Amino acid sequence: MSRTMSHFSLFIFIFICLSCLVVISHAKNNGFSVELIHRDSFKSPLYNPTQTKFQRNFNVVRRSINRANYFYKELSSTKNKLESYMPFDYGEYLMSYSVGTPPFQVYGILDTASNLNWLQCKPCNSCYNQTSPIFDPSKSSSYKNISCSSRTCKSMEDTSCSSDGDACQYTLNYSIGSYTHGDLSEETLTLDSAFGSFVSFPKIVIGCGHNNGEPTYNGPNSGVIGFGSGDTSLIKQLGSSIGGKFSYCLIDEHNSKSNRSSKLNFGDDAIVTGDNVVSTPIVKMIGNRQKDYYYLTMKAFSVGNKRIKYRGFKREGTNASTHNIIIDSGTNVCILPHRVYYKMESAMKKVVKLPRFQDDTDTFRLCYNTTSKQNFPPITAHFKGADVKLDSKGAFYSLYKGVECFAFISQKNGLGLFGNMAQVNYLVGYDLNKNIVSFKSSDCTNY
Length: 447
Ligand SMILES: *[C@@H]1O[C@H](CO)[C@@H](O)[C@H](O)[C@H]1NC(C)=O
Ligand SMILES: *[C@@H]1O[C@H](CO)[C@@H](O)[C@H](O)[C@H]1NC(C)=O
Ligand SMILES: *[C@@H]1O[C@H](CO)[C@@H](O)[C@H](O)[C@H]1NC(C)=O
Ligand SMILES: *[C@@H]1O[C@H](CO)[C@@H](O)[C@H](O)[C@H]1NC(C)=O
Ligand SMILES: *[C@@H]1O[C@H](CO)[C@@H](O)[C@H](O)[C@H]1NC(C)=O
Ligand SMILES: *[C@@H]1O[C@H](CO)[C@@H](O)[C@H](O)[C@H]1NC(C)=O
Known about the structure:
By secondary structure, this protein is an alpha+beta fold. The protein has 2 domains: about 35-250, Cathepsin D, subunit A, domain 1, CATH 2.40.70.10; about 275-445, Acid Proteases (Cathepsin D, subunit A, domain 1, Beta Barrel). About 20% of the residues lie in helices and about 35% in strands. The protein has 6 helices and 30 strands. The chain has helices at about 1-30, 55-75, 150-155, 235-240, 340-350, 390-395; strands at about 30-40, 95-100, 105-110, 120, 130, 145, 160, 170-175, 180-190, 200-215, 220, 220-225, 245-250, 260-265, 275-280, 295, 300-305, 305-310, 325, 335, 355, 365-370, 380-385, 385-390, 395-400, 405, 410, 415-420, 425-430, 435-440. Strands 2-3-12-4-10-9 form a 6-stranded mixed β-barrel. The protein has a 4-stranded antiparallel sheet with strand order 18-17-23-24, with helices on one face. Strands 21-22-26-25 form a 4-stranded antiparallel sheet. The protein binds 2-acetamido-2-deoxy-beta-D-glucopyranose (6 copies). One 2-acetamido-2-deoxy-beta-D-glucopyranose binds near residues 143, 162, 167 and 183.
C-alpha cells in the first residue's frame, strides 16, 4: 500500500516538474501564435450570412480602393499629422485579445499602418455601435492613465492635457465623423495563443477612447490593433519580448470552404527559415516622421516571361526608386501605379486566349470566363533581393462562379500597395531589428 502511495506521489512529483519544465521552456522559447480571423469568414464576428459572395467580393475591392486613397492623402498631406480618410474598420483581419486585470476580451482590427492600439472605453461620452461588451477601465486593477507631463505623451502627435491637467488625451481622426478620442493609458494586454495558453504584456500604451465616432459601424469590433512601425504601435512595444519579430501565413479566405484560419506568430515562432526563403529590406521613411509604413522596394513584376519594370512616385519622405510599395494587412487586392498596371494588363491579354467577361460594376478591368486559375501565366513580384512568385490563388479573384478577374487595380495617384491576397500561401515574416521582410512559399492551410 505504502509502496503504491510512494509511486503515486513520485508520479505526481514528476508530473508537476514536467509541467514546470513546459512552462519554463515556453517562456524561454519566447514564441507564440494567435489566430487571425478574416472578416468574411464563418468564424468572424463580422460574418454576414445574408451577403452574397459577390457583395462580399465587391466590398473587399471597395475597401481596398478607399484604403489606397487614404494612404495617398496621408502621404500627400504636408502636415506631419495623423490624419486619415477612411472608416477605422477598413481592414481585413480581426484578432481577439484581452485588456486589463482581470482580462476582458475584445476584438480589434489588425492594422499594419496604425501606430496606436486603441479601443472603446466606458464611460462612453459617445461611442459607435459596438455589439460586444465595452471595456470599463475602472474595473481593471492594472489600468493607469498616462500623465500629461510624461515623455510618452509629449512625444506623440495630437495629444493634449485633460481639463484637470493630469491625463494625456489622444485624438485620431480618420475621416469626417470617424474618430477616436480619449485617455492615453497603460494597460496589461493578453494575447490568446492558438495553443491554448495566454501571453501577457504589462504596461502597454493604449488609447482608451471615450469619444468615438463611426457613422456606419455596427458590430463587435472594439477598435484597432496597431501593428505599424511607429514607436507607440503594439508591435514596437512588444519589442524585445518578441525579438522584434512577427509573421503570418494567410490562407485563401475568399475561396476557402474549410473553417481553418490564418495564423499570426510572434518571437521565435515568427522566424522564417529554410532553403526557399527570400528577404527584402524594409525602407524607413526619410526624415523623422512618426507616421511610417512598411515600405519595400519593388524592382519589377513579371507576367509569365514578360518582365515589367516597376516605377513608383515621389512623395514627401520617400524616394520613388526605393520606397515604392507598401506591404499592407488592410488592403486585399494589389494597387499599382497606372503605367505598371496597364503594362501588366496588356502582357496578360497577349498570353491568355480565354473568353473575356465584362465586369459591369467596373471593379475589375480584366476578367475571363474560366473554371481554372491554372490557365493563367504566373505573376512574380521582384522585390529588391526577393523574387516572390504569387500563388495562383493570389493573382486572380473569383468574382462569380466561372469568372476570374486579374486581381490588380490601377491607381491614378501612383501609389503601390502589396495587398494580402498576393501574400496568400506565403509565410511572411517581419524582422524589425534587421529591418527585413522574408517570404517563404508555404501551404498555409497546413501551417
Ligand atoms: C483617467 O483620466 C480621466 C480624465 O481624462 C479621468 O476621468 C479618470 O478617472 C482617470 N482614471 C484613472 C484610473 O485615474
Ligand atoms: C479632429 O476633428 C475634430 C472635429 O472635426 C477637430 O476639432 C480636431 O481639431 C481634429 N483633431 C486632429 C488632431 O486632427
Ligand atoms: C446603432 O444602434 C441603434 C440602436 O440599436 C440603431 O438605431 C442604429 O441604427 C445603429 N446604427 C447603425 C449604423 O447600425
Ligand atoms: C464552418 O463553421 C460554420 C459555423 O460554425 C458551419 O456552419 C459550417 O458548416 C462549418 N464548415 C465546415 C466545412 O466545417
Ligand atoms: C533614391 O534612391 C536611389 C537608389 O538608392 C539613389 O541613387 C538616389 O540618389 C535616391 N534619391 C534621393 C533623392 O534620395
Ligand atoms: C461567362 O460567365 C458568366 C457568369 O457565369 C455567364 O453568364 C456567361 O454566359 C459566360 N460567358 C461565356 C462566354 O461562357
